Amino acid sequence: GREGLVDTAVKTAETGYMQRRLVKYLEDLCCQYDMTIRTSTNDIVQFTYGGDSLDPIFLEGKDRPVDYDRIYQHVRALYRYDDELPLNGTDTNTFVAQEIVKDDYSIMDNEYKQQIIDFIQSAGKKVDAYRKKYRVDERLENIEEQDDENFKSEDNRKRLSTTTTVAKKQRKLSNVFHEVERCTRSQLLEFLQLCKSKYGRARLEPGTAVGALCAQSI
């Protein structure tokens, strides 16, 4: 028993002193305004911190500043935009690809933009799969055709104006179909803005003493 205690004490002393030496050796490493990591003598240690200039403290996903799926579901639940029609998978991909290249998103690097595009493409495939599975487009088209037929005659127009009309039931059914994996342009804009905001928050700030942080985390 005594021998084990001695070994533990020695190991603790060695590792504790090792951390002190690391802190002393790395304490002058700092992120500069050109985003390079330099010593107090201005020697470059890294051109970009960690290869992506992102602070690990603010990463939500694995090596990513945003948990895309959580943000996507959050936006769809919180920002309804009920007055807008949902997009199909192809329109979703096209809209995001055109929007993300604008100057408003220039803060994000190309790798991060590609991650967003890849996620939206996978979400778009899911939208198309659901719409195909439940024949959403076909059923919506049938509802529109029935509405056109019902409004052709005056008798039908009077009948459809009552509270118990088939038209109201058809519109409710139409609304149900529109809710299947629903995502609108405004929701996608909210998603992109949140991704940009979280990316900006996760970027390493100039002046951060990254050396001391790294030494303490070992």
From TrEMBL:
Superkingdom of source: Eukaryota
Gene3D superfamilies: 6.10.250.2940, 6.20.50.80
Enzyme Commission no: 2.7.7.6
EC top class named in words: transferase
Keyword list, A-Z: Metal-binding, Zinc
Cross-referenced InterPro entries: RNA_pol_Rpb1_5, RPC1
Annotated RNA polymerase Rpb1 domain residues: 1-218
Gene Ontology MF term list: DNA binding; DNA-directed RNA polymerase activity; metal ion binding
GO process terms (BP): DNA-templated transcription
PANTHER family, per the entry: DNA-DIRECTED RNA POLYMERASE SUBUNIT BETA' N-TERMINAL SECTION
Annotated protein name in UniProt: DNA-directed RNA polymerase
Organism expressing this protein natively: Philodina roseola
